[in-house]
Amino acid sequence: MKKKILVTGGMGYIGSHTVVELINAGYHPVIVDNLSNSDKKVLTQIKQITGISPEFYEIDLCDKVALNIFMEHQQDIAGVIHFAAFKAVGESVAQPLKYYDNNFGSLINVLRCFEERKVAFVFSSSCTVYGQPDVLPVTEEAPIKKAESPYGNTKQVAEEILQDVAKAADNYQIVSLRYFNPVGAHASALIGELPRGIPQNLVPFITQSAIGKRGPLTVFGSDYDTADGTCIRDFIHVVDLAKAHVAALQYLENNKAVKYDVFNVGTGKGYTVLEAINAFDKANGQSLAYQLGERRAGDIEKVWGEVSKSASVLNWKASLEIDEMMRSAWAWEQHLQSAE
Ligand code: NAD
Ligand code: WQD
Q: Which residues form the NAD-dependent epimerase/dehydratase domain (predicted)?
């Protein structure tokens, strides 16, 4: 029998790619999502990619009653991958309660569903918990800096909640994955990121600008202490990231004594913003128009991850390079345009 894995937020950007990888690895994903930042079409696309239409329940995880009714019929869930959360940093500054409500409410409600049963639980954390690290590449042991935003704070506090829960009860085995900067899309160009409004993140802005949906890109800051003056990030292909979740589940299955652990999920390599733009141009035969602008408030100057712990313990390593991240991001943007 295929193992059932509850994937909260499984219709979203990272969740949908993970559902594909779970199916590829022989699991039976069950998606719960309220579609607050995703589209039902994703189910058809996943079916096109895998030949399997995953089980899907449109439920708001903050709705305890609906969640409990759903769980009564799901006695055989062996694992949970918890993606569901709001993630827009700027919006979280303007509407902190919306973020605290949803990101904590959904997490606590899902954890409560497993108070009486064993579960392997994988949580979407973020390299945002490190702020500007003092030492690079940043390791999992680096100090957690005061969060720059309510969104970042939800990740820090969620990690604390998970550690407390793992310590208090024997039935939870928990892994937090600290993602660096997820970009790109599935090679089929059938699933990808669906940014609402003006993209705040670099790669969606690049692709929307290249396709003519937006004006020229503004590079936020060119006077940082880096080789070309622009910020450095560790971009990670979303398909590699999706596979890290499968690796984390398998790690928990094979190591029943593990109660809580945390892993960086990146490539271990940093690229400046200008290098990322060049990679986009090179991969897609483009010459993206951009202008150098002011720094963006709250930006981290440079961050990339030490990923040897994920390699040795999870047996996972990123394999896709920046050219493939940029190629697939562009193919996805073109798919979106042709579907309009
Ligand atoms: P996304 O918005 O594409 O996916 C999140 C999904 O969760 C959406 O489909 C949304 O409809 C659903 N959702 C939100 N609240 C819900 C609720 N109360 N009940 C049910 N469903 C709900 O985001 P993503 O980029 O796929 O991110 C997934 C996770 O990874 C999030 O927790 C995010 O904070 C984290 N993360 C993302 C990034 C990034 O840059 N994308 C980086 C680090 C961590
Ligand atoms: C990358 C670089 C920008 C847009 C954010 C969240 C973080 C995490 C990932 C979830 C920066 C520059 C961007 C533009 C630009 N999410 N940039 N022009 O800032 O690393 O992280 O998303 O946990 O919490 O803060 O990613 O893609 O926004 O920016 O020059 O139009 O690109 O200044 O240097 P970031 P990003």
A: 5-266
Say which ligand is closest to the CA of 123: 1
Ligand 1 pocket test, pick from 8, 36, 180 with the greatest ligand atom count within 8 Å of Cβ, gives 36
Looking at the DSSP bridge assignments, the partners of residue 120 are: 79, 173
Q: Whose CA is nearest to atom 34 of ligand 2?
A: 231
Domain boundaries, the chain: 4-183+236-266
Report which protein residue has its CA nearest ligand 2's atom 9.
Answer: 181
Q: Which amino acid is at 168?
A: A
Class of domain 4-183+236-266: alpha beta
Cβ-contact 231, 301 below 8 angstroms: yes
In whole angstroms, give the CA distance from residue 278 to residue 269. Answer: 16
Percent of the chain with pLDDT over 90: 98
pLDDT, one tens digit per residue, over 72-116 is 999 899 999 999 999 999 999 999 999 999 999 999 999 999 999
Instruction: Tell me the whole-structure pTM to 2 decimals.
Output: 0.98
